[in-house]
Write a structure and sequence with these properties.
- It holds the Pfam family Hydrolase.
- There is one protein chain.
- The chain has 277 residues and is α/β, with parallel strands linked by helices.
- The protein is built from ten helices and ten strands.
- It has a five-stranded antiparallel β-sheet. The protein has a three-stranded parallel β-sheet with strand order 8-9-10.
- It starts with a helix and ends in a 15-residue tail after the last helix.
């Protein structure tokens, strides 16, 4: 966004005065001094806390929010001077990704710092089940903590502010194109940065866990019969195992387990195969 503002400044050939005493307030806005005058910018919650034109600010904020945009309001010497409307466009695969998760029986929640009106419009467009808006950067972890009380929770994020929540969740999933901090905090990283890979990673995890259970069952069943037979436990019944066949049987056991594990390469993690009813 800063880049877009600078481009507009250059386009309009506006002279920029140096900023003194600059202060960034996470989740609220920014504050600084230009030519001896205090200038501030940020969300309605932050700006309205100062003796500016509150009624005008409220009307502007509501108007921009109703259009599905996030208002960034600016004031100079405690007087309103302008607003930048930021449109949060969702990724092309967002709706499909959410749809796939819902088909898997997963409750999808959108967690955002945007105001409720803007978040509701974006959430409806994406098709999520629930929208939690107005969350400050340091409050995401607390929200995840509350959601975890209702069941196992996975968090998907890509920003610096998402890192604590990614760490807190049962499973943290980071977008590959996100910040290094978010990637380091996550358990899973989507290298291709596709939201549809969230559902794919869950399918792969389920297939892997099922494969592990199959291999454990096979190894337990095979050895429960093979080891006593090789040790001569059934010799009284006339059942014995030649050591050469025992060695071959052991190799066959390992071969079966490895072959079954390789079946994961054929797993339908993107759900493209149609089920036969």
């Amino acid at each position: 966004m800063a880049g877009a503002v600078n481009q507009e400044i250059e386009k309009r050939k506006i002279t920029i005065s140096p900023v003194k005493n600059f202060n960034a307030l996470p989740g609220n806005g920014l504050l600084g001094e230009i030519d001896g005058v205090i200038v501030m910018g940020g969300n309605y919650r932050f700006i309205s806390g100062h003796p500016a034109d509150k009624e005008e600010l409220k009307n502007i904020s509501d108007k921009v929010s109703n259009e599905g945009k996030t208002p960034l309001i600016f004031a100079k010497d405690n007087r309103y001077i302008g607003t930048i409307a930021v449109a949060d466009t969702i990724k092309e695969d967002s709706h499909k990704a959410v749809s796939e998760l819902k088909k898997m029986g997963i409750h999808v929640v959108m967690l955002t710092g945007d105001n409720e009106r803007t978040a509701a419009i974006i959430g409806k467009e994406a098709g999520v089940d629930e929208v939690i808006a107005g969350v400050l950067p340091d409050g995401k972890e607390n929200v995840i903590r509350e959601l975890m009380k209702k069941g196992r929770t996975a968090m998907v994020g890509d920003g610096i502010n998402d890192a604590p929540a990614l760490t807190r969740a049962d499973i943290g999933i980071a977008i590959g194109a996100g910040t290094d901090i978010a990637i380091d905090a996550a358990d899973v990283v989507l290298m291709k940065s596709r939201l549809t890979d969230v559902a794919a990673s869950i399918r792969l995890s389920k297939s892997t866990l099922r494969n592990i259970h199959e291999n454990l069952f096979w190894a337990f069943f095979y050895n429960t019969i093979g080891i006593p037979l090789a040790a001569g436990a059934f010799a009284g019944l006339g059942l014995t195992l030649n050591p050469m066949f025992g060695a071959a049987a052991m190799s066959l056991s390992s071969f079966c387990v490895v072959t079954n594990a390789l079946r994961l390469n054929l797993a339908d993690i993107y759900g493209k195969r149609k089920k036969i009813e």
